[in-house]
């Protein structure tokens, strides 16, 4: 009986095991649902908007929520629900693209530093530590000031603000794996550095990077909103949750909904990515415990 259970356990697909663990994590399921809702809203934004996000009606400026405008209107009479929906697309695209840039830079620098060591490791690690020690908002502000305000600039600026954490993660993983027996055996068979690094080391180093990147999307969305709030993000009439809240500060006591609803949308989005990332951390911890 016990032998059958062992055999059955061995034949289980690792992906199936991970899926079962994940679906057993209620917070992870909630986070996944929130992320899926964001993705759907971002994809189908033009169809979900009750009005054009650019349509102005001065007669309806700062109108409170009503049956015709569920979230009210802003200072130009634009439907706030339509702008919040379109802002979801901006936030999702900026968050994902900027994290992709950060991860790619971090993987290249971290893998080279960890694999070759010595002076190369010292120089690259010092550079990463210096970048890591600076606030991301300060780096992003400096880069946007140099590149110029705009959505593309924000993506690049955020991507260049967060790469150091991924470089440190990858370097640590490479250092712990490169002395493993199977890596030494691969070297003795004459495999090139490129093959060892990209076929054997990096694939086994990506788990913590994936988790960090998932949570990093939420951080990138907050940073984009901060830049938008400061007027350095997406430029009008393109809606950004941060820019919407910034413009609403002048009418805080007249139409507080202009700040409240974009803020709630951003809070729910970041919560979704954080819950999803926390669930991944828990699953990987369980996996590591069982493998020890």
Description:
The chain is mainly alpha-helical. The protein is built from 14 helices and no strands. The two termini are 24 Å apart. 38% of the residues are buried. Mean pLDDT is 85; it is low at 1-10 and 286-292.
List key phrases describing it.
14 helices, disordered C terminus, mainly alpha
Number of helices: 14
Please identify the structural class as seen in this structure.
mainly alpha
Backbone CA Rg: 23 Å
Number of strands: 0
**Element-by-element helix/strand order:** HHHHHHHHHHHHHH
Give the % helix.
over 70%
Low-confidence stretches: 1-10, 286-292
Inertia-based shape: elongated
Through-space gap between termini? 24 Å
Sheet bearing the most strands, described? none
Percentage beta strand = under 5%
The pLDDT mean sits at: 85
Q: Which assembly state applies to the chains in this document? A: single chain
Write the layout of secondary structure elements.
Blueprint: H1 2-10, H2 14-23, H3 26-43, H4 45-48, H5 80-116, H6 118-133, H7 136-147, H8 151-159, H9 163-177, H10 181-188, H11 193-201, H12 206-229, H13 241-248, H14 257-291
Helix pairs in contact: 3-5, 3-14, 5-6, 5-8, 5-9, 5-12, 5-14, 6-9, 7-8, 8-12, 9-12, 12-13, 12-14, 13-14
Care to give the gist of this entry?
With 292 residues, the chain is mostly helical. It contains 14 helices and no strands. Helix 3 packs across helix 14.
